[in-house]
Please model this.
Amino acid sequence: MLLLGGRSEIGLKVAERLAAGRTVLLAARRSADLAAEEARIRAAGAREVHRVEFDADDVTSHQQLLPDLFATHGPIAVVVVAFGILGDQARAEQDPAHAVAVVHTDYVAQISVLTVLANLLRSQGSGDLVIFSSVAGLRVRRANYVYGSAKAGLDGFASGLGDALHGSGVHLLLVRSGFVIGRMTEGMTPAPLSSTPDQVADAVVKALRKRRIRVWVPWALRPAYFVARLVPQGVWRRMPR
Model:
């Protein structure tokens, strides 16, 4: 199993649930500092845990690093792409460099790794690929439109990629979660239908076992966002995060 985003709360929760008997690769920047994360995965029953130096924003490195990991540790049964940043909406509205940084990490870097991973898994002929979208991208709100626009792009890309991988032996799971109460959203008021990293991880593992291609967390978000598409723009404009 390969976790891209070795410090991600949700990614680590998923890894803990899938670790038993597996070799787990934890990939993140400053990988030497992942001792606590490695200990968690070992305690969950992993056969081996390896730390991998990975910079999501360095897109030029992906075409070398990821094939090397597959060559050294393959076949890789599960890849979880769990890196990303929320950013600061107010700052992004004034600082174009910050806006670009959010979109680069949450969209451009994702496209880079997913394109490489799709080709590697297709050549392997099997594997699960987990991608985290967000309901923030299904109808972008004024309150977080920079992050939301990146997630909108990622959701579309992942949906198309899943169709492209159909019949290849590779299974793509697109996770559409709402507000997740955790480190990334610390200090923010939880939105309705919020969830925790544990709840998201449980839903991901269940969806993998059932070979689903989409999962909403919580499930009630799906009908809620069907209705949300009908809300007049003047009302939607005032919706909170």
